[in-house]
Amino acid sequence: MTIIKKFEPIDSKKGFSKKYLSLVVACLFMLMLVEIWVSNNVVTYGEKFEKLSTISKTLSLENQILENEIAKFKSLNNIASKSAELGFLEPQSIQYIR
Amino acid sequence: MRRIFWIKTIFLLFLFAIAIRLFYWQILQAQFLQSQAENQHFTNTKVEATRGNILFSDGSILVSSSPIFSLYGLPKTMDPGQKVKIAYSLSKVLTGDTNDVDVIAKNLIDKLSQDLYWVQLKKNVTTSQKKQIEELDLQGLGFQQDSSRFFPEGSSSAHLLGFLGSDAKGSSKGYFGLEGYYDGELKGISGLIKHEIDALGFPILIGNFFTQEARNGKDLILNIDRSVQFIIEKSLRAGMEKYGAKAASAVVMDPRTGGILALASFPNYDPAKYFDFPKQYYKNSVVADQYEPGSTFKVLVMASALNEDLVKPDTYCDICSGPISLGGFTIRTWDNKYRPDSTMKDVIVHSDNTGMVFTARKLGLEKFYSYIQNFGFGEPTGVDLQDESSPEIRSKSSWKEIDLATASFGQGIAVTPIQMVRAVAAIANGGNLMEPHVVKEIKDEKSSFVVKPKVIRQVIKESAAQVVKEMMVAAVEEGEAKVFSPKGFRIAGKTGTAQIPVAGHYDSTKTIASFVGFAPADNPKFVMLVRYDEPSSSIFGSETAAPTFFNIAKQLFLYYKIAPTE
User: Fold this and answer.
1) Domain containing B204: what range?
2) Would the pLDDT of A13 be above 60?
3) Are residues B202 and B253 in the same domain?
4) Which of residues 7-46 of A touch B (CB under 8 A)?
5) Please, what's the largest Cα pairwise distance for chain A?
6) Per-residue pLDDT averaged across A57-84, rounded?
7) Which of A29, A47, B65, B117 is deepest in the core (most CB within 10 A)?
8) Where are the alpha helices (DSSP H) in A1-98?
9) 3-state SS class at B404
C-alpha cells in the first residue's frame, strides 16, 4: 500500500515570512529616508568644512609668522643692539670671588 | 511590405549608429571622459611639505620657513578704466620709497594692459603687504602662497648654513653648507588631498576622499652655541677691520666630542639675498680653503716625535746655532735670531724653524708622512658641510730632504682650517682624532636621530699629548704673544705665520696669520683656530690672530663660567 503524505503549507510560517519581509522593506525605506535626510544636511557642511580649513590654514600661517617674529626679537643681534641703545656696556673688569 | 522593410532597415541603421556611437564614447573615449568627469567631481590639492628648521644647540631658531606670496592679476576681469588706479594703489603698498611709485606703477600698468587672462605682478610679497593689498579690496587680483627661508639672526652663520636656491627644474634646492649637505632631510615630501566637490566647489563630506599626507622636512639641531657664534663673529669682524685683513675665519670645536661650537668667516653674504653677492663669497673658507699652516703645524710634528720617543722636552737641538743650508736653500728662523742648545720646549716657545728641522730629521720621512696622514691631513674630515675640500699630500716618493725640512714648520704643505683644528683637538683630548660634526640631532614629529661622537683613531699616546700641551702652554706664557694672553688662565696655543706662495715663490709681504689653541689647558672646553688672510697692520700671527684668539677666549671663559686658576 502506498501512503501518500500530503504536505500542506504551514500557516504560521507563512505569516512569519510576510511579517519579516514587510519589516525589512520598512527598514530599507527608513534607511533611504535617513540617507536622504543626512545627505541633505551634510551637503551644507561642505561650505562650513571649507571655511574651517581656510581658518586652520590662516591660523597656522599666523602661528608661523609669530614664531618667526619671536625668533627675530630673541636674536642676539637684536638684543645686542637694543642693549646698546639702552646704554648697557660690556664688562670691563671682572672680579672673581673665591 | 516594402514600406515596412524600409522602416525596419532605417531602424536597424539607427540602432547600428547608436551602437557605434556608444562604442566610441564608452570604449574608445572612456578614459578621456572618465578623467574629465573626475576633474569635474574631484579636486586635487598639493600639500607642500614645510622645509625643516635649523636650530641652535639651545633650540632657538637659526633658520626657519616663512610664508611669502606672489601677486597676480587677471587683466580680462578688470575694468579697463580702473587699471591705472589699481596699479598706483598697488605700487604705493609694494614700494616703501615714494620715488619708485611711478616706476613700479608704470611697470604694473604695462603688465595689466597685456592681452592675457593671468599675469604675475610681483614675487616675494610679504604677509603685511598682502594684508594691505587685501584691505584695498581691488578687483581682479589674487595671491599664490610660497615659502622662503627666514633668518632671524640676519647674515650670521651664512657660510655654515648655505642657502636655498632652485635647481634646473625650478624646484627648491639647498646649496652649500648645511642646506646643501642635509637637503634630503630638510626638504620633506609633499602630499596630496583628493576629494569630491559639489557644483559650487565645496567638498562633499560623504563623497570619496583620498589623502597622501605630506611629510614635513626634518629639523636639524646643531652643536653650534649661539652665544659662542655671536662672540666669534663680532670679534672676528672687529679684528679683520683692525688688522686690515682681506679675509678672516675662525672655528671653535669641542675637543671631547668633535662638535663644532661656532664657525665664521668673512667676507660673508646674506643667505636671504645670496644672488646679490659674488659667487666666490659662497665658499666656506673653514672647510674649503687650502692654506699653508706655518708654525701652527710645529706642534703636530713635535707631538709625533714625542710619541715615538725620539725627542724629549729637554732634548737639545744641536743644529740651532745658525741658518741651515739644504738643497740650495737656506732655512732661517722667523726673527733671524739663533739660540744654540735650545731644548725642544724652547723650539716651540720661540717657534724655531731650525729646531723643527732637527725634529723632522729625527722623525724621518717614513714616520713624518705616516703621522701627517694619521692626523687626518690628505683626506676630508667628514664634517657635515657640503663644500668640504681636502688638499692632497704629494706622494711620498716625490719628497726630498728640503720638503721634509720645510713641512716641519708648516710650509710646502696645504691643509684646511677644519683639518688643522681637528688635529690640534687630538692633542687637547689626549690623542684621539675625532670626526667633526655641526649637527647634533636630526628630528621630525615622530623620531629623532642623535649624532654620536666618533673617534677615528688614536694618533698619539695620552702621555705625549700631555707633554705637547705643556709646550703649548709655555708658548703662550713665554712666546711672542704673551702680552695679549689673559692672566691667570692656562691656555695652550701656537702662533702661525705662513708666507703665501705667489707664482712659484713666497711673497714675504703677504702672509696667512693664524693662532690655534685650546683652553683651559688642563680640562679643555674648546679648541679654536683664528686665521687672517694678508693682514696689513702686521704680517705676524702673534700680533693679529693671537690677540683675537685671546679676546675671544676671555669672553668664552666668562660665558662658560671658567675662573682663573692662578
Assistant:
1) 38-67+154-222
2) no
3) no
4) 38-39, 42-43, 45-46
5) 133
6) 91
7) B65
8) 11-43, 45-74, 76-85
9) helix
Does B59 reach chain A within 8 Å, measured CB to CB?
no
What stretch of H or E contains B426?
Answer: helix B417-428
Q: Within a domain: residue A8?
A: no
Q: What is the pLDDT of residues B47-65, one digit of tens each?
A: 778 899 999 999 999 999 9
Residue with cell 690628505: B378
Task: Respond yes or no on whether ipTM tops 0.90.
Answer: no
* Any domain includes B188: yes
Query: Which residues constitute the domain of residue A67?
Result: 16-80
* β-pairing verdict for B219-222 and B247-253: unpaired
Query: In which residue are the cell numbers 614664531 written?
Result: A67
CATH of the domain at B484: 3.40.710.10
Same domain as B430, residue B401: yes
**Residues B481, B546 contacting (CB under 8 angstroms):** yes
> How far is B76 from B59, CA to CA, in rounded Å?
49
Counting the structural domains of chain B, the total is: 2
Same domain as B215, residue B245: no
B158 and B276: one domain? no
Q: Read off the C-alpha cell for A57.
A: 590654514
- Residue A29 domain flag: yes
When scoring A39, A62, A77, A97 by the number of chain B Cβ atoms within 10 A, the one with the most, hence best to mutate, is A77
Residue B395 DSSP one-character state:
P
Whether A61 has its CB under 8 Å from any CB of chain B: the answer is yes
Interface test with B, best of A64, A69, A78, A83 (most B CBs within 10 A): A64
Q: Does B227 touch chain A (CB under 8 A)?
A: yes
Q: What is each CA distance from B100 to A18, B73, B465, in whole angstroms?
A: 87, 20, 64
A3: number of CA atoms within 13 Å, CB side? 2
Taking the Cβ of residue B184 and every Cβ of chain A, the question of whether any pair is shorter than 8 Å is answered with no
Question: pLDDT tens digits, residue range B375-395?
Answer: 999 999 999 999 899 999 989
Q: Is the pLDDT of residue A80 over 70?
A: yes
Q: In chain A, how many domains are there?
A: 1
